[in-house]
Backbone:
């Protein structure tokens, strides 16, 4: 009987509403089970929260639309990163890589405005790579300090 009730609840819960495309959950857990944000500045963590669900979404028109719609969030996040105090020992690297992220976002924004689906993935990849460069700068500094951990992005 309980099994029948559970099936009925599932059937009712699944019906009556148009299906929406699946949206990935924010990725904040590492494979080791720790919080990935613990290794990021607040500015990087906020940018990560905008980037990760879009980066991990299925490639296609919905991913492009979601990413392009989030350009104001990406831009404000990159501005916050650029204005943040760089990690000690990584000042020059941080500034250089924040500039690379800003340039990658400008390219992505131009791609979005042109609605150029053929260039979108390449432009989005450049943002992703630039973001990871900043994560590395924050983790390593110029003195090679680094806590070993994996991240899901």
Residues:
């Amino acid at each position: 009987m309980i099994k029948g009730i559970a099936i009925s609840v599932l059937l009712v819960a699944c019906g009556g509403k148009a299906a929406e495309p699946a949206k990935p959950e924010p990725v904040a857990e590492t494979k080791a089970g720790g919080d990935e944000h613990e290794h990021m500045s607040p500015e990087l963590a906020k940018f990560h929260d905008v980037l990760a669900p879009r980066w991990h979404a299925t490639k296609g028109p919905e991913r492009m639309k979601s990413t392009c719609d989030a350009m104001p969030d990406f831009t404000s996040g990159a501005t916050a990163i650029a204005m943040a105090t760089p990690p000690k020992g990584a000042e020059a690297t941080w500034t250089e890589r924040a500039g690379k992220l800003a340039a990658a976002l400008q390219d992505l924004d131009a791609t979005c405005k042109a609605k150029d689906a053929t260039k979108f993935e390449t432009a989005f990849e450049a943002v992703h790579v630039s973001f990871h460069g900043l994560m590395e700068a924050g983790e390593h500094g110029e003195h090679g300090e680094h806590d070993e951990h994996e991240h899901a992005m």
User: Anything to note?
Assistant: The radius of gyration is 19 Å. Confidence is low (pLDDT under 50) at residues 1-35, 142-153. The longest helix spans residues 91-114. The helical segments are 2-14, 42-55, 61-69, 71-83, 91-114, 117-140.
